[in-house]
Amino acid sequence: MSQKAQILNEMNERSREVFRRVVEGYLETGEPVGSRSLTRTMSEKVSAATIRNAMADLEYLGLLGSPHVSAGRMPTETGLRMFVDGLLEVRDLDESDRDSIHATVGEGESDVGSMLDRVGSALSGATHGASLVLTPKHEAPIRHIEFVSLAHDRALVVLVFADGHVENRVFQPPAGQTPSSMREAANFLNALAEGRTLSELSDAIAREISEHRQQLDVLARQMVESGLAMWENEGQSYERLIVRGRSNLLDDSTEATELERIRELFDDLERKRDIADFLELTEQGEGVRIFIGSENKLFSLSGSSLVVSPYMNADRKIIGAVGVIGPTRLNYGRIVPIVDYTAQLVGKLISDQGKR
């Protein structure tokens, strides 16, 4: 049993109820909860002084805190985590939320990118938070790769997959590239690419360059190595992390310090520097995961929470993720089933598309 679970089990019924009602009150209003307001909601009649004593004990345990001496109490990040793990009651998905997600996402969409963009809009609309959608890489084996020079500082790579899918990506090649070095780079890649997916090819490229470094022209090697970042969708227009609903985070925020923290979050999202970390969070298992405050290593905004779930293809392989980010006082009981349902719906739509 974890230390947090042990603390929760050792609380008496009154302390447990005080803790639960303080957290629920804070999640509903965003404000500290005072002892007098609790006297009207407790299941047994107790005095404000008795509740204050219970609050003081909970504060000593690090579960509650107070913004200033005369204010009520609010949960700490530790308290929120304990509540989420031990006391949170996850509701069934509301029919209205289900209908809203279906109406926005739709079915029969052939373009996965457009469908996932609408998923982001549906999630942010239903939860009033900012939504994050990590789109899948195309994992079919590669049939052919070709480089095309567009200008001295721009080139196009054409990726043709075995299932007929074609992707064209513009990127900045290393200086001094020639048609000959581009052909050599393409030939080198095509010799490795047959039967491999993009992610498999990245590993093979690094290994092959290391073992046969001298056999590849310097310019061609630079061209291949510059492509490694491109395979992971870095530094070019192809968007793997779709962010929608940023304005929702501003609705209830008027304090300068809060607005500055939200600006930092926007900066992090714009840089999209932690896409791999975002997917890694979801690859540790199925189901919804909740990251509260400083537990969330993706963003520098410590006052935020992330509710995220992976989605899978027909082979039950995790290929992407959907999530909602917002203040730590998210309505977890409502948002968890929304994120869970959306992830399952996306997996079903992508799997159905693969059967066509």
UniProtKB/TrEMBL annotation:
Gene Ontology biological process terms from the UniProt entry: negative regulation of DNA-templated transcription
Top-level taxon of the source organism: Bacteria
Repressor as UniProt keyword: yes
Domain Heat-inducible transcription repressor HrcA C-terminal: residue ranges: 115-336
Pfam families associated with the record: HrcA
Keyword annotations from UniProtKB, A to Z: Repressor, Stress response, Transcription, Transcription regulation
GO MF, one annotated term: DNA binding
SUPFAM superfamilies in the record: GAF domain-like, Winged helix' DNA-binding domain
Described function: Negative regulator of class I heat shock genes (grpE-dnaK-dnaJ and groELS operons). Prevents heat-shock induction of these operons.
Family: Belongs to the HrcA family.
PANTHER family: HEAT-INDUCIBLE TRANSCRIPTION REPRESSOR HRCA
Protein known as: Heat-inducible transcription repressor HrcA
Gene this chain is encoded by: hrcA
